[in-house]
Design a protein that fits this description.
Layout (H helix, E strand, L loop, with lengths): L1 E13 L12 E13 L2 E5 L10 H8 L2 H4 L1 E2 L7 H6 L10 E3 L5 H4 L9 E5 H7 L11 H4 L5 E4 L3 E2 L6 E5 L8 E7 L3 E5 L7 H6 L9 H16 L3 E3 L4 H6 L9
Parallel strand pairs: 3-5, 5-6, 6-7, 11-12
Antiparallel strand pairs: 1-2, 1-4, 2-3, 8-9, 9-10, 10-11
């Protein structure tokens, strides 16, 4: 199995949202990681990043409303997972499974393009996205509500039954946030932590981002992440630019 890191876009936000106590005017640039897993039984995409249209400020506000002023896209028109796949000689129809770590707009924005894929979503995440106050919580139907088959999970799930890709419910950021524990032959174990660990500081120092759904639940999930890290897995943070700069990307795969 090969693992490719692809860009799902880039955002600018207030740094204090992630690191309470810093100067309120300070901002932080956040990469958005999408991960292609080329498994013998199918091509799997973990998160799809932002919809390409949000590269335009006007389109971002039309799609996200006032949220576009809180998390501002600073990505080019070709900075998205579709362009990343194209660089590998692939297209959206080559993807068999899309794992939705959660249903926020910067993680599932390109779901609509993967019309031949099955979407895997935690049942509690789908429930939250369908709630009356969903949009206020960052869930937009244009990003997640599509006609493709949805496979809902409630517990740990071995995607192909061989231990290569195991989904782990690690809620707290949202009610149904999931991570994926990936086992590679040569490169070892990686935990695609999604927004359970947006920045490394959350894991190392226990700093809870302000936009956390439930800090107590997230703290319990972080205990599990630390246990997995202690067993030797590399923890991939969803938005940590320092880590992002060190990762191999595109065709330079991990195996």
């Amino acid at each position: 199995m090969k693992m490719h890191f692809l860009s799902g876009g880039r955002l600018r936000m207030r740094k204090a949202i992630f690191l309470p106590g810093v100067e309120k005017s300070a901002t932080i640039e956040l990469p958005i990681a999408s991960v292609l897993l080329r498994h013998a039984q199918g091509n799997v995409l973990f998160d799809t990043g932002c919809h390409p249209s949000v590269a335009s400020p006007a389109e971002a506000e039309a799609r996200w409303g006032t949220l576009a002023r809180v998390m501002t896209p600073i990505m080019g028109k070709d900075d998205n997972v579709l362009a990343g796949l194209s660089g590998l000689g692939m297209q959206a129809d080559d993807i068999d499974v899309v794992i939705c770590s959660h249903l926020h707009a910067d993680h599932c924005g390109c779901n609509a393009f993967f019309k031949k894929a099955t979407l895997i979503v935690h049942a509690r995440e789908l429930e939250a996205a369908r709630a009356d106050d969903a949009q206020a919580q960052g869930f937009f139907r244009a990003d997640w509500d599509h006609p493709m088959p949805i496979d809902t999970v409630n517990a740990e799930r071995d995607v192909f039954g061989d231990g290569r890709i195991t989904l782990l419910p690690l809620p707290g950021h949202t009610p149904g946030t999931m991570s994926a524990l990936v086992q590679l032959e040569r490169s070892g174990a990686f935990l695609l932590a999604s927004d359970t660990v947006s920045l490394r500081e959350t894991l190392d120092d226990g700093v809870m981002p302000k936009h956390t759904w439930n800090a107590e639940v997230l703290a319990k999930s972080l205990v599990e992440v630390r246990r997995i890290a202690a067993q030797g897995a590399t923890i991939i943070c969803s938005h940590d630019d320092r880590q992002w700069q060190t990762l191999r990307k595109g065709a330079d795969a991990y195996d």
